Amino acid sequence: MPFTIALWHQKGGVAKTTTAISLGACFAERGHETLLIDLDPQGNLTSGLGFDPEQARGSAADVLLGNDTLATVSRETCLPGLDLAPSNPDMVTLPRWLHLREKYEPLLRQALARPEVAHYRVAILDCPPMLGPLTVAALTAADLALIPTQCEYFSVQTLANSLDLVQLVRGRTNPRLAYRILVTMFDGRGLLHSRILAQLQGVFPDALLQSMIGVDSKLRESQLAGRPITLHANSSRAAQQYRQLAEELLTYAQRSVQEAA
Ligand SMILES: Nc1ncnc2c1ncn2[C@@H]1O[C@H](COP(=O)(O)OP(=O)(O)OP(=O)(O)O)[C@@H](O)[C@H]1O
Ligand SMILES: [Mg+2]
Known about the structure:
Blueprint: E1 3-7, H1 16-29, E2 34-38, H2 44-48, H3 60-64, H4 70-73, E3 75-76, E4 82-85, H5 94-100, H6 107-112, E5 122-126, H7 133-141, E6 144-150, H8 153-172, E7 178-186, H9 191-203, E8 208-214, H10 217-225, H11 229-232, H12 237-260
Parallel strand pairs: 1-5, 1-6, 2-4, 2-5, 6-7, 7-8
Antiparallel strand pairs: 3-4
Helix pairs in contact: 1-12
């Protein structure tokens, strides 16, 4: 099964989707085949890679409803080795269907365990910014919950809720779920971000990743262009920082696979 990372934080706009695209591109660039799965009815991951969610024929909804497999709904992106299972309007009503279904939690994990997707080294799941069945299914499938946060009061305040869900899923459907926190949109020029960063380091000495992502307007431009940052601005600061993050997570994944063996 691919090493599975779920981008999750209940707070909106903390760079879950930006991290999913950029990290996926960095893994693919290093030769690790990566499948991105857009679980957000907003479809930002899909449009950020240049596809129109309104036009996408298959989506993760078809997979979770049992009508299709990940292999059939996935498509190649502009970057070799980076594939996408898109979101489409069917995702909007999906949470309601899932609620009605008994035992919906392991459906995504089962889809990722199928032989047709075994060639992917990594799967990255982009969660919506809400507690709900899509997020629970994603965290049940994941080896790692990657929680991006800004060094801002509201983001850090919501962190507790996001971690509560990780604990809940760990207790109920996925005991092996680990989590790591990633600081995004960091701006060291003011005092506030540095102060909040120091607090995060104090509270989460092990879970806070070494890699950090600074503010970089090239990321916004790249989403408008529908291309990952590594293609849009190969040597930008954000591209370099996401490469460093990919490196740190690959080391983490190798270590956790060895420990589990
Ligand atoms: N490092 C960065 N520097 C500058 N802008 C950024 C950075 N990371 C993300 N952004 C911008 O911040 C906005 C929110 O990012 P993004 O959509 O990835 O967040 P999200 O957590 O997925 O949001 P949602 O919860 O709504 O799904 C976007 O406009 C994105 O381009
Ligand atoms: Mg998003």
